[in-house]
C-alpha cells in the first residue's frame, strides 16, 4: 500500500510538472506582450527606454529557460506575482472570485445529488425494467 501511495504521488508530481510547463509555454505563445498591458501602449505614448526598463524588471529579456525557471520557482513559493492588467497580486484576484466559484460549485453538487440519488434508487428498484433502461 505504501508503494502504491509513493507511486501515485510521484505520478502526480510528474503530471503537475508537465502541466505547469505547458501552461508557461502557452503563456509565452499567447498574443500580446505583458509590457503593453503594463504600460498601456495603446493609450499613451511610451518611450523606448520605459519599455526596456519594464522588460528588464520583469525578466523578459532573459532566455526562455531562465524565465521558466524563475516562474516555476515563484510558483513553488506560492508567489503568483502581480496582474498585468490590474497591478494587484494575483492571489488577491483569485480570492475575489473564490467565493462565487464555490457557491456555483456547491450549488451544482447539491442539484446533481438531488437528481441522481432518487434516479439511482428507482433504477435499482426497477432493475432490468423499462425505468432502469430509461434512466441509464
Automatic annotation (TrEMBL):
Its main location: membrane. Pfam families: BPD_transp_1_N. Residues 98-136 form the ABC transmembrane type-1 domain. The chain crosses the membrane at residues 12-30, 102-127. Keywords: Cell membrane, Ion transport, Membrane, Nickel, Nickel transport, Transmembrane, Transmembrane helix, Transport. InterPro entries: BPD_transp_1_N, MetI-like, MetI-like_sf. GO terms for biological process: nickel cation transport; transmembrane transport. GO terms for cellular component: plasma membrane. It is a multi-pass membrane protein. It comes from the Bacteria. PROSITE patterns: ABC_TM1 (PS50928). It is found in: Cell membrane. PANTHER family: DIPEPTIDE TRANSPORT SYSTEM PERMEASE PROTEIN DPPB-RELATED. This is ABC transporter permease. It comes from Staphylococcus capitis. The lineage of its organism: Bacteria, Bacillati, Bacillota, Bacilli, Bacillales.
